[in-house]
Task: inverse folding
DNA sequence: ATTAGCTGCTAATACGTATCAGCACTTCTG
DNA sequence: CAGAAGTGCTGATACGTATTAGCAGCTAAT
């Protein structure tokens, strides 16, 4: 019951009749120094180790070696609590998979509840050799400090403006959005609308950039740069602008608009096409599958983890990587009906 | 770019014109020793700390204090890889929640792929202050070593036979099963069958124990102590034994049996009631909601985490806790039809 | 005027490991 | 037979922190 005093190398040394240094050399000497320990001695030490079940204390080890084969996973927002957990799990899956493959363990530092700071009082983050940062809301001050500091990290999701280049793996939303616009145009849409923010997080800006880049000025009939507006109101604006297709950044808005439209007897996509910019986790809703693009969350997380390990192990230079987002067919984008056309 | 030599207490001390010891005392002195540092000095040191963003190295800290406010989570089976991840996530949610509330971080040690040993070569587990063990397949040798050792741990799920009492939090399956049996009897069932293992894991034994305890000998018409047998075969046995109600341990078996029965034109629960022993994660299958009992996975995980912290912080004695499993109504248990009764 | 007690600090040490310099001894070389 | 080279090992030290013992200098009490 009473703590049985943990076994140390000194104990092993005593039992084997050698010095602590010898034990350490047996355990992890360089080929060079290893050659200077005769087989007999080595086997004697190894036997004692086997018999006692000794394992080196990773803490002491880390202290002297500096590395621990542990990666931190930092999230500002609560990662797990079951409510909206599904946002993080695909990322965690990916990180875990890559970490396992590379022989690393994971230290979870999730800000469940109390907004947590990386540079807080009790930051145990540094136990890890480096860390992956997840989350939508980034504290730019902290990011800048990380960039300036020597602690290896990689962000999942593109980040700018941190007083230096931020290593990241993100989704390539701009071309993915542009591709959807092209697809809408090829269906014959000439009156297109946008609902969503056009500034703020990088991912948001990218969507708007990809959109505005490929939509001709004449084709953009209206933009609503906000989210969460009452759907009926939004719909009124869209219809009075004569839009035949609307691009929406938030799934929730898309669902609301679709619902409002259906209530008015409009048919999707005949009377109005809806495109969502990015597949959202709970997209497996009943019935309707929105046309969108896939965000390769697991692949992003894997790539970020591998990048982090490169930085940890080889002090690799900052990399910035955007992964391709595959279009998702869905059933909310189609040709505008001639009726709608005439209505205009 | 070149590693900017991590900040240490010595650096802080130098900048503030005091000794390293003073810095340490400012950071975490006892009220006693704190009272001996004048406010002026303390503020000077604190200012330097704030300006530099210094944080104490948790590794060195752990080395001297022995505690780290980190809990390990060990799983034998792969925890994350998305395939069957859903088994572990509720547990992880619960552990994470409790750990956060108690001010602990989580070190994930998941055996993805290579069957991992707790006592391997590279055991980073000891970095944690204690650990929660998850997983169905336990290595009893290792469990015994854990019990014998001084490393605090708590198992999720009841465990026996480890050369000593194993601290655990499990589900109280026996009475939950018994309650379902009583319920079946109150519906009028007098010819009951059992499909599933009756030995092996503790959780399995508990189910069988709860079942056999409350089913009268005359009422148990047949038992099939195996899983995965062809459903038609199973159904033949059940029907020829005249069973009106069958208790199944594996959801997969229940689904298969239900499907086979429906194919033959039998109605569930009129012609045959099916009770599953424990809600399985993916139970939200289309259509059919099986009568069963709820396994409070998150609560189990929370309780296990809290128990672990008690052991870590106060060296609390071994506790063994079984949590109540609420019955789940479902729609596969009902009164046996008179037709079925007559048929016999 | 001595001592006892307080205040403000610091030196020294321990924690468990990795690693390097080097000691004592043997064997080989010229 | 002196020196070089090799062998088998150990002592000392560093890593960054917490903590204890204790040193000056000062004040208050006897």
Result:
């Amino acid at each position: 019951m009473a703590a049985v005093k943990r076994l140390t190398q000194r104990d092993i040394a005593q039992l084997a009749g050698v010095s602590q240094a010898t034990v350490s050399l047996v355990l992890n000497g360089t080929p060079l120094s290893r050659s200077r320990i005769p087989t007999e001695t080595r086997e004697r030490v190894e036997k004692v180790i086997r018999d006692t079940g000794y394992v080196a204390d990773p803490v002491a080890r880390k202290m002297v070696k500096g590395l621990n084969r542990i990666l931190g996973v930092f999230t500002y927002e609560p990662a797990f609590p079951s409510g909206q957990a599904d946002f993080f799990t695909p990322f965690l899956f990916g990180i875990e998979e890559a970490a396992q493959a590379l022989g690393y363990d994971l230290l979870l530092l999730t800000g469940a509840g109390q907004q947590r700071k990386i540079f807080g009082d009790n930051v145990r983050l540094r136990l890890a050799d480096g860390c992956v940062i997840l989350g939508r809301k980034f504290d730019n001050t902290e990011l800048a400090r990380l960039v300036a500091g020597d602690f290896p990290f990689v962000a999942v999701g593109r980040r700018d403006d941190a007083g230096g280049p931020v290593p990241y793996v993100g989704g390539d939303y701009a071309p993915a959005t542009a591709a959807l616009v092209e697809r809408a145009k090829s269906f014959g849409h000439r009156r297109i609308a946008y609902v969503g923010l056009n500034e703020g997080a990088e991912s948001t800006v990218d969507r708007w950039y990809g959109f505005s880049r490929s939509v001709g000025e004449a084709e953009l009939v209206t933009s609503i740069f906000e989210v969460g507006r009452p759907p009926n109101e939004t719909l009124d604006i869209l219809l009075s602008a004569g839009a035949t297709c609307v691009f929406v950044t938030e799934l929730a808005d898309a669902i609301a608009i679709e619902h409002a439209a259906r209530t008015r007897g409009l048919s999707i996509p005949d009377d109005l096409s809806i495109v969502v910019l990015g597949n959202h986790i709970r997209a497996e809703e009943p019935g309707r599958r929105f046309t969108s693009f896939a965000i390769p969350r697991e692949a992003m997380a894997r790539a970020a983890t591998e990048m982090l390990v490169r930085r940890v192990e080889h002090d690799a230079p900052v990399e910035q990587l955007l992964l391709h987002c595959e279009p998702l067919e869905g059933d909310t984008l189609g040709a505008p009906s001639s009726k709608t056309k005439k209505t205009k």
About this structure: Chain A is about 40% helix and 15% strand. Residues 6, 8-10, 20-21, 23-25, 27-30, 33, 56-57, 59-65 of chain A lie near DNA strand C (CB under 10 Å from a C1'). Chain A touches chain B through 51 residues (CB under 8 Å). Confidence is low (pLDDT under 50) at residues 340-344 of chain A.
